[in-house]
Design a protein that fits this description.
This protein is mainly beta and about 280 residues long. It has one domain: Porin (Beta Barrel). Strand 12 and strand 13 form a beta hairpin.
Length: about 280
């Protein structure tokens, strides 16, 4: 009898040991994915071009920002860059952008709705009073700023976005309603290479009149390539526009997109709309 009891105990142990080992080896359940995502970005460009127009007197810029997004599609973020005061920011040298919206994708299709606020600390919008509306004398006080709403859509590697200014465009009097349409394509070639293209159309509302004396509307375009090297993205792109920026001062005045190296007491002038090649290096984290 005793031998039978011992044999039964040994058999039970033989069965229990593998079961215990299997239980110990079973992986723990994976933690649920967080609905919150935080990212950052940092970059250097040889010339900061905003909608095709140089903002840094064709000099380099250091740029960076942070973003938060939720699984529901809502997002907020901030992006910053140095600028030159002669580009329309008297007394300022920094651009701060704050934005938020809702973005969602369904297969190859995507939708993006949001708003963006551009602000330039230390600037004096009153310094641009020479651009006052000649009909009502409207000017601005305080810092230079701009607020836009936008709607964008995408399909695979093609995207389009429409911006509409709900404030006076960068504090230029009586220009609310100005708009910009952007059509872009970014095609992955593999091995870290991406080719990109862009065309944009800008309309400065209530500006192309005899009283204004100039046409600020234009078309911008870009074609370039990027290479991802272990998270560092190197880029080169040719950017050009149809904007008017001649600095010959014929007839005593330069064209609208001729910018000086300073908002006051400028000693040098450049066509901020002329074509150029922009080099860049950036990293997201």
């Amino acid at each position: 009898m005793r031998k039978m009891i011992i044999a039964a105990a040994l058999a039970t142990a033989v069965v229990a040991i593998p079961q215990l080992a299997a239980a110990q080896a079973a992986p723990a359940p994976a933690a649920p994915a967080s609905p919150h995502t935080f990212t950052g970005n940092l970059g250097i460009v040889s010339d900061y071009r905003f909608r095709g127009i140089s903002q840094t007197f064709k000099q380099p810029a250091i740029q960076g920002g942070v973003d938060y997004s939720h699984a529901s599609g809502f997002y907020v973020g901030n992006w910053n860059s140095n600028v030159n005061s002669g580009a329309g920011y008297p007394g300022g040298s920094i651009e701060l952008d704050f934005y938020g919206g809702w973005k969602k994708s369904w297969g190859d299709w995507g939708l993006d709705l949001g708003a963006i606020y551009y602000y330039y600390p230390g600037t004096d919008a009153n310094a641009t009073n020479f651009l006052a509306n000649p009909r009502n004398g409207k000017t601005h006080t305080g810092g230079v700023s701009n607020t836009e709403v936008y709607i964008g859509g995408s399909w695979k590697w093609i995207s389009a976005k429409y911006y509409y200014a709900v404030s006076d465009y960068f504090s230029l009097p009586d220009t609310n309603g100005s708009r910009y349409f952007d059509l872009s394509a970014n095609h992955d070639l593999g091995s870290g290479w991406t080719v990109l293209g862009h065309i944009g159309s800008f309309k400065l509302d209530n500006w192309k009149t005899a009283a204004r004396g100039t046409n600020a509307d234009y078309t911008a375009w870009k074609i370039g390539v990027t290479k991802d090297l272990s998270g560092w993205v190197l880029g080169a792109a040719y950017i050009d526009t149809s904007a008017k920026g001649n600095c010959t001062f014929q007839g005593g005045a330069a064209e609208f997109y001729c910018f000086g190296n300073s908002a006051s007491g400028a000693t040098k002038f450049k066509d901020a709309s002329a074509g150029t090649v922009v080099f860049s290096v950036s990293k997201s984290f």
